[in-house]
């Protein structure tokens, strides 16, 4: 499949010597939801800003729908919608007018019907005649989303779209994202709510220190790097883990009442049966046990920690 976004050797360095992006290669497929995760300062916003033509790169190339973002700026930018982190809106314009104006900036014909449908999708229709300065922060965020979608882009960038907003907007946002994906729109999002990426994304990319350290399909990532843990609630508190159990990956809760075994869920032999036998041999009894699968957040934290 031909990627709708192709990034090669992308580098961004500043005069003070700081390198925000370091030789980034990345391809994003048409119609997918791609989540870009990384700690603060990792380079997520810089990567988005360059791809959207807002920041100049030091080196490398970016193509959107086959158009070079630098040489064919207008054609490439017309394919992109961007919802930035910052709440930058035209304070004294009405909601309807500012969304309609943004559509016109991209050369799209007037369409009251389209703007009405868009505002209704984002629960903004009853605010259509309100000046933006009168809106709450959550409503202003909705307006940014509407502006980004006003020219019917093929690619939508969502840079922390639900940061600091209410639960209702988050639900509306992800409902709309699913609808857009069904229409073939490619969506690239960054988020601090990693559970959102786990629920929504088709593929996950992790960036740290300006470098892409991993790109995988979500299901493959969860399967390959995911771990399970077995929690045993002990009948009697334990002071220390017996040396006879040192071969196992165990942790003991601070109060000594829970012993946890960490194991690879995909391993041919998990070692759980042998471990339970070893517990019995040591005379260690438990009243209950439960297992837990790694979340995407667990995997992300582990990846970033080991790359630091």
From TrEMBL:
Protein species of origin: Limoniibacter endophyticus
Domain ABC transporter span(s) in chain numbering: 5-234
PROSITE patterns, sorted: ABC_TRANSPORTER_1, ABC_TRANSPORTER_2
Protein name: ABC transporter ATP-binding protein
Gene3D superfamilies: P-loop containing nucleotide triphosphate hydrolases
Similarity-based family: Belongs to the ABC transporter superfamily.
Any single Pfam family the record assigns to this protein: ABC_tran
One Gene Ontology molecular-function label: ATP hydrolysis activity
PANTHER family assigned to the protein according to its UniProt record, in alphabetical order: ABC TRANSPORTER ATP-BINDING PROTEIN
InterPro entries per UniProt: AAA+_ATPase (IPR003593), ABC_transporter-like_ATP-bd (IPR003439), ABC_transporter-like_CS (IPR017871), ABC_transporter_ATP-binding (IPR050763), P-loop_NTPase (IPR027417)
Record's keyword terms, sorted: ATP-binding, Nucleotide-binding, Transport
């Amino acid at each position: 499949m031909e990627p709708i976004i192709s990034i090669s050797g992308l580098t961004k360095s500043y005069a003070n010597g700081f390198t925000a992006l370091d030789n980034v290669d990345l391809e994003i497929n048409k119609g997918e939801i791609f989540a870009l995760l990384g700690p603060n300062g990792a380079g997520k916003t810089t990567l988005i800003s360059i791809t959207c033509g807002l920041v100049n790169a030091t080196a490398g190339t970016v193509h959107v729908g086959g158009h070079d973002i630098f040489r064919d700026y207008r054609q490439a930018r017309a394919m992109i919608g961007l919802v930035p982190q910052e709440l930058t809106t035209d304070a004294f314009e009405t909601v309807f007018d500012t969304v309609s104006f943004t559509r016109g900036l991209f050369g799209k014909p007037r369409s009251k019907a389209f703007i009405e449908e868009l505002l209704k999708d984002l629960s903004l229709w009853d605010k259509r005649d309100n000046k933006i300065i009168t809106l709450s922060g959550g409503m202003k965020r909705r307006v940014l989303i509407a502006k980004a979608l006003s020219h019917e882009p093929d690619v939508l960038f969502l840079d922390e779209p639900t940061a600091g907003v209410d639960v209702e907007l988050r639900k509306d946002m992800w409902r709309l994202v699913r609808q857009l994906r069904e229409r073939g729109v490619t969506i690239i999002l960054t988020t601090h709510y990693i559970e959102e990426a786990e629920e929504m994304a088709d593929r996950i990319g992790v960036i740290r220190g300006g470098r892409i350290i991993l790109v995988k399909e979500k299901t493959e990532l969860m399967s390959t790097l995911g771990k399970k843990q077995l929690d045993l609630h002990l009948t009697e508190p334990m002071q220390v883990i017996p040396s006879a159990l040192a071969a196992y990956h165990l942790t003991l809760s601070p109060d000594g009442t829970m012993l946890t075994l960490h194991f690879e869920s995909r391993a041919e032999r998990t070692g759980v049966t042998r471990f339970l036998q070893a517990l019995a041999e040591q005379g260690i009894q438990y009243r209950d046990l439960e297992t837990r699968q790694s979340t995407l957040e667990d995997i992300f934290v582990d990846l970033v920690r080991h790359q630091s």
